């Protein structure tokens, strides 16, 4: 059997990686529809050696589509995902539009693959920072249970799209040339103030909520509980944007439930966990960095330490390519699981 796959947001930072990952994964795809805004009409993108023309994302474009991967912003997903489902497609949505909808599974295959089969047409791909964190927490949860999580993130600009990547380039060049620096996009395009990201750190990703946390921080908090099926798990997050292009890094503090956990045992868990690569040796200065993780599908973990005061507390450094495991690769994994398990229809 062969499938008709659509990519919505095909010209975007994540969409481009989706196309590349679909190609590399060699899924049984007999037709691909690459969709974006009117602005991209006529552009061509190569897929499996063929030039495919970008079409406008309109409801009729989903006629005959089996699986649609969405990454064109929440408002597009709200408008068009139901149109795709109406026409018989299963949607894997990379935006935050449906993630907390109780009818929509929120999936990281290494953690809760089986939730996919409960879908009603839409499956949500979690927030990029959340994906890599829960992938690293899951082996620890399975072995020891977890009681509490506190995370601080160090996030790449590509998480805010191609335009943010351009903004960082332009600002960096301007600064080095001694020219005036323009900030028009980050931290959040629609927000009132903008600050330079070049040679800076911005403790705001997405808009502020009434409780003083940003929406990105609340995504990490709420989505972690949903994916891990731990509704009562205490989770707290601080999310920070930094001036590099790719990969998110995280300092994760986790408290385990049962005794018996040690740094050595946790390292052993990571050595045997799917999708995780342990890179941890202070003697050889071995640890992952955003640059070393770029272009790779795995979640890299290093700097594992026991807390100085809390014997059941452990610190981890977790790094992954935000466009791959954080977005495109996780979405393609979900699509592959749907195909292999025959979960297209509920
Ligand atoms: P386009 O290139 O035609 O604007 P990024 O995350 O890198 O900013 O990319 C956003 C993606 O979402 C792009 O592929 C963009 O297409 C797409 N997109 C933005 N607005 C719309 C829209 N109104 N309809 C369809 N696709 C859209």
Automatic annotation (TrEMBL):
Domain Semialdehyde dehydrogenase NAD-binding: 4-119
Record-level Gene Ontology MF annotations: aspartate-semialdehyde dehydrogenase activity; NAD binding; NADP binding; protein dimerization activity
InterPro entries in UniProt: Asp-semialdehyde_DH_CS, Asp_semialdehyde_DH, Asp_semialdehyde_DH_beta, NAD(P)-bd_dom_sf, Semialdehyde_DH_NAD-bd, Semialdhyde_DH_dimer_dom
Binding-site residues for phosphate, renumbered to this chain: 99
Coiled-coil ranges per UniProt: none
EC number(s) reported in the record: 1.2.1.11
Domain of life: Bacteria
Matching SMART domains: Semialdhyde_dh (SM00859)
Subunit structure: Homodimer.
The family this protein is said to belong to: Belongs to the aspartate-semialdehyde dehydrogenase family.
Protein name: Aspartate-semialdehyde dehydrogenase
Organism: Salinibacillus kushneri
Name of the gene this protein is made from: asd
């Amino acid at each position: 059997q062969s499938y008709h796959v659509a990519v919505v947001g095909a010209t975007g930072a994540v969409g481009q990686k989706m196309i590349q990952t679909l190609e590399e994964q060699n899924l049984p795809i007999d037709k691909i529809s690459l969709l974006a805004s009117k602005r991209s009409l006529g552009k061509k993108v190569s897929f499996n050696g063929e030039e495919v023309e970008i079409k406008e994302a309109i409801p009729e474009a989903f006629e005959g589509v089996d699986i649609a991967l969405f990454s064109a912003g929440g408002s597009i997903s709200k408008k068009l995902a139901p149109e795709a489902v109406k026409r018989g497609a299963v949607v894997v949505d990379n935006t935050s539009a449906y993630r907390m909808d109780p009818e929509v599974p929120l999936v990281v295959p290494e953690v809760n693959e089986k939730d996919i089969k409960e879908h009603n047409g839409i499956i949500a791909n979690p927030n990029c920072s959340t994906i890599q964190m829960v992938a690293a927490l899951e082996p620890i949860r399975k072995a020891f249970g977890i009681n509490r999580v506190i995370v601080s993130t160090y996030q790449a600009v590509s998480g805010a799209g191609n335009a943010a990547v351009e903004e960082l380039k332009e600002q960096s060049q301007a600064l080095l040339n001694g020219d005036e620096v323009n900030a028009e996009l980050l931290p959040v395009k629609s927000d009132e103030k903008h600050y330079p990201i070049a040679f800076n750190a911005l403790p705001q990703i997405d808009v502020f909520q009434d409780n003083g946390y940003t929406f990105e921080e609340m995504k990490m908090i709420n989505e972690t509980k949903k994916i891990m099926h731990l509704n009562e798990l205490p989770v707290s997050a601080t999310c920070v944007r930094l001036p590099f292009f790719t990969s998110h890094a995280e300092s994760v503090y986790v408290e385990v439930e049962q005794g018996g956990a040690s740094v050595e045992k946790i390292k052993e868990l990571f050595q045997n966990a799917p999708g995780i690569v342990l890179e941890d040796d202070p003697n050889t200065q071995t640890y992952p960095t955003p640059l070393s993780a770029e272009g790779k599908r795995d979640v890299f973990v290093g700097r594992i330490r026991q807390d100085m005061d809390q014997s059941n507390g452990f610190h981890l450094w977790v790094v992954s390519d935000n466009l791959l495991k954080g977005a495109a690769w996780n979405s393609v994994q979900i699509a592959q699981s749907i195909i292999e398990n025959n979960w297209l229809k509920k």
